[in-house]
Amino acid sequence: MKRYASVLGLKPENIAEYKRLHAAVWPDVLKQISASNIRNYSIYLREPENLLFAYYEYHGTDHDGDMAKMAADPRTQEWWAVCMPLQSPLPTVKQGEWWAPTEEVFHID
Are the beta carbons of 51 and 7 closer than 8 angstroms? Predict the structure, then answer.
């Protein structure tokens, strides 16, 4: 198992809609997350900075392959099309990134 965390901005005018959407994530999207070997997935919101912090644990053997399968899933693409306009990538993300990856600097079980 490997832990992943990332951050992303959320446009202030979209906070209520983002919370509403994530209070009832589409079942097909949840199935795809599980099929992609993702467990213990959480998204947190930090206001007033309007930063989203996502954390998940990956239990597979091919993270890049599983993420590519998720990205190719039509229902997931629909979900992202709804959510992405609400978000605001950090200005420092690399080309091709949306969520900005973070470095784990401490962990204890």
Answer: yes
pTM: 0.93
Per the CB < 8 A criterion, the answer to whether 100 and 6 are in contact is yes
Is 107 noted as a catalytic residue in this protein? no
Q: Is CATH 3.30.200.20 what the domain over 2-101 is classified as, yes or no? A: no
Which two three-digit tokens encode residue 48? 């007033």
For the chain, which residues make up each domain, given as ranges? 2-101
pLDDT in tens, 48-60: 999 999 999 999 9
